[in-house]
Amino acid sequence: MKENYSSKQVSQATGLSIHTMRYYERIGLIDGIERDKNGYRLFSESDIGWYKFLNYFRAMGMPIQEMQKFAAMRNPVVSTLTARRELMETYRKKVYEQMKELERTLVNIDHKIGYFKILEEVEKRNTYE
């Protein structure tokens, strides 16, 4: 028998808020969520796995639009593996460029910290003279 999970259980399993889970459903990042006779959502193991995957994208800083592109490629009939890999490669390039920019920023910050340390030493010498 297939086990179903409540919104609260999925939220706890994925770390996503129920509000975020509903938002992802509303914007098409996840679909096919079953409902019980009272209209409550019933999630599967597969749904939990997909939410975890979306959470991973979110943690990487992937914009919602990119996540939607990736989600739109989920097609059980037609293989979209190449397109999904290419999307991930494109996103990897963006992340790599962001990392390079952050490294340049860190170097600038370190230089500024060094400059302030020198100024502090000069100030100390002038204070004690």
TrEMBL record:
A matching Pfam family: MerR_1
Keywords for the protein's UniProt record, in alphabetical order: DNA-binding
InterPro entries registered for this protein in UniProt: DNA-bd_dom_put_sf, MerR-type_HTH_dom, MerR_fam
Domain HTH merR-type, residue spans: 4-73
GO terms for MF: DNA binding; DNA-binding transcription factor activity
Residues in the signal sequence: none
SMART domains, sorted: HTH_MERR
Name of the molecule in the record: Transcriptional regulator
UniProt organism field: Paenibacillus nasutitermitis
